[in-house]
Amino acid sequence: MKKVFIDLGANDGCSVELFLNNIDHSNEFEIHSFECNPHLIEVYKKKFPNFKIHNKGASTYDGKSKFYLGNKLASSLRTDKTTGNINYDKPIIIDVVDISKFIIDNFSQNDYIIVKMDIEGAEYDILPKMLNKGLFDGYIDELYGEWHYNKLLNVTREFHDELISNLSDKGFRMKLWCAETGTIDKNT
To answer: What are the structural domains, with CATH classification, of the chain?
Structure first.
């Protein structure tokens, strides 16, 4: 059995720092961080040269995608994010990875997998696919992250609530993980 931390939206490595300093036995975990903002990759690599950083965006498919940059830390794969001064006129093209497929192809249901997602709205695309592919039926053991419902134009309250309900039906809730404030909700 492997212990795995999958860090979706690695930023500058602040989530890995939070993980290493706050999760019991963090040194026993294989860490896979995903970050596609070119301004943050090098910062991460300097902080954590021994950890695997995937220079790809978390997505529902493997391939290429438009990626929109904004102010210092703001960016998104989505075109409906209303915060962070996102520049939708000048997207860059990035590689994206199907996170559901990545987990199924690389890990087993016997592994202990913690997923953290701070992916600026893409959680509304990725989580439904994870549910559909059965990742909450044995692969994923803990889910952390941030909801971006209030920052997106094209996600209804009903869709948000239904997603939370569908996770709850599987025994999950996305517990708060905010690296900027150093907050982790460890309550079940």
So the answer is: 3-62+99-184 (3.40.50.720)
